[in-house]
């Protein structure tokens, strides 16, 4: 996460806490039926310690297992965008920017920025809680812990996109198939995340590394 | 289609008519990029007289190939092709490429190439997005610097578009005007910025959300990994040793960071043989995301060599470099062409004043061996005044805006300009001025320069610069000279590819036509696929015992993306087809063997800088070499024109017929 992202994510959490929304409100996700969208702000989780509660029983839901994550080193990145294109290639069979799970930030006139932006695979994944078809559309992968989207089940409501605490949202939307897509840590791919594989080793070595759920601090 | 987008855009700026051409008509036979652009141009001009560079009919083509927009290393190249205003005396058709992400975004907008013909009646720019094409009023942009133009266009069309634009130099038809994208990625040599200016076309804006289809994604990913890891062990640029970045490479306001040049690459930015120190402590406002002014790249480093070789005076140097970028001028010609012409004239007492100032230049220049301190000695104020005057055509600047050979004609200095300029272009890795390569490498340079449309190193850096840097005895690289026999046999089919080093007059000319032709084909491959001129082909490596590199890498990338299963030979045949179309275009423009031979006096009179080696060109041996070159190419030895037999064997019957009429 870039500094700016962190700041935005943090400040919004503080803001919500300030509003006193306090304990989390459960999302109205029941068995496989898309539900009416709630106003996004009211739904936000606001703490990292308290997890979601079941809207049915009111009992706290267990926090999902921890995920691995792609870590990015600004110092090592040569800004080539290869990860962005390879990501789309592996997931969509075609190279694309719009369909990449990796967002790209670029500014070359006032500043000099070229950097990929990755899903943080949050410990407390707001996208996951926001999904009306939780565990069917937005799921947790048992082996990597990746929070991923099952496109076959996704109803395209974009709740997850809005729920993402990062700016820009790390979840994208495919207007043709009308489904959301996000980083799944290439859970089905032999060899793991393709972005890490293709990352340039020029200079100081790869800018991207996969930190597994066990290694993650 | 896999790799290609399937459509080529044709914009007639005169009447605003917009048409589309199927890419399928041209590929895979003409690969893409420059190769495809040449046949596109041939067809556009079929049955019509060949236009002059500034005629509305001159087709200006932005073209890229199947690899662009994919993760293939160094594939983010766009080629610009047209009759080149910088060329002299005839504006031979040629190309110049730029990096950045324009190629990718043009494809995501839906097109493999965009061809502009005609002339807009007022300043305009073209906005292409997802198959929509808008010809828009550019009056409010006319006169603006390149960077400002991009800023305003991004405000209007979004920060995610890619923009190729010209500065005041292009608008004023300066023959050394570039087309620039981002901060420093330019199509420099050729002066194509002036062609855009002549068409009243200020900018081309592309963006889109299409996707580039890939036939074998998994294979491509594996090839990307393999090839990217091979590049540091044997890329033609430099010694292949990459400089690691350190944590201090980025520090707030200042930066020492080298950053990406082309989409899907960034390898070159990490190279060692640059001037890492020069870059340190420079204000970030003078640097950009693309190639860094004043960084390792020859394309953006005019200041120190044009000025006083003071690499420490960074702020001033960067300021000057940036000025050239903003005006849209060709750095290379400014510091490795025009300046040396001026310096030669000064040294001979033929030019004493410039811009109303008495000249005081570096008398020991332009070429000093072994250190390449070929600096010219302009004062900063004179240099800035001079390039502004060129861009706006003021006073002496108006004369030099026509490029060195035409300026020489006007100033009565025609007898001086042959020492630096051939076909309108300055020296480039030929053993004289700045690049002090050994004999017989520069014999190959001479042959390349003679038979091509541009400077000797138009996408053929690998042929000579690569080996000079790679060989231990020459450029302190890892390859022993003796190993070139093995590499030569394997890659070129001859042990004598680089034989004759030192003083061997016979061996120095032996089989050099094979190397030149091979590399012209590799050049065509690179500019058509596209991949980087500095990175490919990887003919040598430190990774294998015989040091023969992975010289077929680009073909595998091509196959993975397009789904073909070509061999290198098939790819080289396609490249040969494109080269023959290029030559046929030149012949239509009036090219003869005599034009090819016009480079010889440069090599005959101007000594090489290696004093203990053969220093000048042997005319009779070179003439025989040229004979062998034409023979091997299937071109007429007397005229230098491709024969009908050759053209037909390449499937170019239409070209042969048109050539005869």
Calculate Rg of chain A over CA atoms.
17 Å
The CATH superfamily of the largest domain in chain B appears as Aldehyde Ferredoxin Oxidoreductase Protein, subunit A, domain 3
Order the strands across the largest sheet of chain A as they lie in space.
1-9
Mean pLDDT of chain A: 79
Task: Please state the overall shape of chain B, judged from the principal axes of the Cα atoms.
Answer: globular
The level-1 CATH class of the largest domain in chain B: Mainly Alpha
Shape of chain A: globular
Beta-strand content estimate of chain B? 5-15%
How many β-strands of chain B, per DSSP?
18
Largest sheet: spatial strand order of chain B: 2-1-6-3-4-5
**Domains of chain B (count):** 3
Q: What is the N-to-C succession of helices and strands of chain A?
A: HHEHEEEHEEHEEHE
C-alpha termini separation of chain B: 36 Å
As residue ranges, the low-confidence spans of chain B are 238-258, 271-280, 286-297
Descriptive overview:
The complex is a heterodimer of chains A (about 220) and B (about 650). Chain A is α+β, with helices and mostly antiparallel strands. Chain A has a single domain (about 5-210), classed as Alpha-Beta Plaits. Helix content of chain A is about 20%, strand content about 15%. A two-stranded antiparallel ribbon of chain A has the order 1-9. In chain A, strands 3-4 form a two-stranded antiparallel ribbon. Chain A has a two-stranded antiparallel ribbon with strand order 5-6. In chain A, a hairpin with a 5-residue loop joins strand 3 and strand 4. The longest helix of chain A has 16 residues, at about 5-20. Chain A is globular. Chain A starts with a helix and ends in a 6-residue tail after the last strand. Chain B folds into three domains: about 5-205, 4-Layer Sandwich (Aldehyde Ferredoxin Oxidoreductase,  A, domain 1), CATH 3.60.9.10; about 240-415, Orthogonal Bundle (Aldehyde Ferredoxin Oxidoreductase Protein, subunit A, domain 2); about 440-660, Aldehyde Ferredoxin Oxidoreductase Protein, subunit A, domain 3 (Orthogonal Bundle), CATH 1.10.599.10. Chain B has about 650 residues and is of the alpha+beta class. Residues about 240-260, about 270-280 and about 285-295 of chain B have low confidence and may be disordered. In chain B, helix 6 (about 215-235) packs antiparallel against helix 20 (about 555-560) and helix 8 (about 315-325) packs parallel to helix 11. In chain B, the strands form four sheets. Chain B has a six-stranded mixed sheet, sandwiched between helices. Chain B has a six-stranded mixed sheet with strand order 8-7-12-9-10-11, sandwiched between helices. Chain B has a three-stranded antiparallel sheet with strand order 14-15-16. Helices cover about 40% and strands about 10% of the residues of chain B. Chain B is globular and about 60 Å long. Chain B contains 26 helices and 18 strands. Chains A and B meet through helix 3, strand 2 and helix 6 of A and helix 3, strand 13 and helix 6 of B.
